Amino acid sequence: MNDGIARDLPMQAQPTQSLPARPEPFEVAYAGKTAAAPAVVVCIPTMRRPDHLALTLRSLAAQDFARPFACLVADNDPAGRAGAARAEAMMREGVVTGAAVVVARPGHSSACNGVFAAARALFPDTPLVAMIDDDELAEPDWLRRIVDAQERSGADLVGGPVLPRFERPDAGRFAGHPVFTPYYTASGPVPFLYGSGNFAMRAQVLDRLGQPYLDPAFDFVGGGDFDFFKRARDAGFTAYFEAEARAVETVPAGRTSLRWVVARSLRYGAINYMIERKNARRPLDRLRIPAKSLALLGLGPLRSLSRLASSGDLLASTHPLLEALGRVTAQAGFRPEQYRPREGRLP
């Protein structure tokens, strides 16, 4: 799934603000035996999904990758720790090798920061750091293809598509919606990546950008990964998209509802606004943002009608208008917080 896609942002490089240094603490829950210097460490942030995490780890165990790699699970639920416990059990059984850590600070950005910090601390000589989400399954050739693409292209960051697998048998009408489709479709160099659910990078990207890697301001809204990729682009790092390095996301029934899809479109608009506002250093730049938001809102109906005419998909055609509306509501202070933990509910 495209997380934090900002489809209305300009593609040219823009200066980004540096973040105040804030190393993300983590606790090592389990450290198993691994190769001295694995070729890749695969990071898996997790939050109250131990059963699907087990499926994710088994999909990594089935990789046709010939070189040693380690799995690094980061549990963002310090009270429950179900993910860390499941990862430890599977590592002790020898299903996968690696380690499990606990990141106490809640939020998507903080979980990513903790797992990346752990990757550099526990595997300092590993040249590549990859990531996959705990609700995804890696295709058997995923790791081989994403590493091959990095070595072939020489890119600093390589991403692949996240394809939806809907739990609801009647959810096909959602398949063409932008929140469920990859931003890129063809392999090749790209300006930057969009989501952290399927990518790999040189470890030196983390070392150069420094902590916090992802901006904690996006902890609960999401989009910190997109902001991270933009800052990597602005720092001179290159990106590549490998269409054959596929991961499959399990989309639960609760995410194939009109309410959830509308909220997701609004959230994309909020993320766009937050990133632009963060990077607006001059007063004139800050004044341009509300003008752009109002312009996009005015064009929203036309963009939606154009998409409806070309695709015939009524649900997908609402995305441009809702995304524009999300920018305006975020400017007014309303920002949907998908990743804020709620008792008894997944973020």
Automatic annotation (TrEMBL):
It comes from Methylobacterium currus. Keywords: Glycosyltransferase, Plasmid, Transferase. This is Glycosyl transferase family A. It holds the Pfam family Glyco_tranf_2_3. InterPro entries: Nucleotide-diphossugar_trans. The keyword Transferase applies. The keyword Plastid does not apply. Belongs to the glycosyltransferase 2 family. GO terms for molecular function: glycosyltransferase activity.
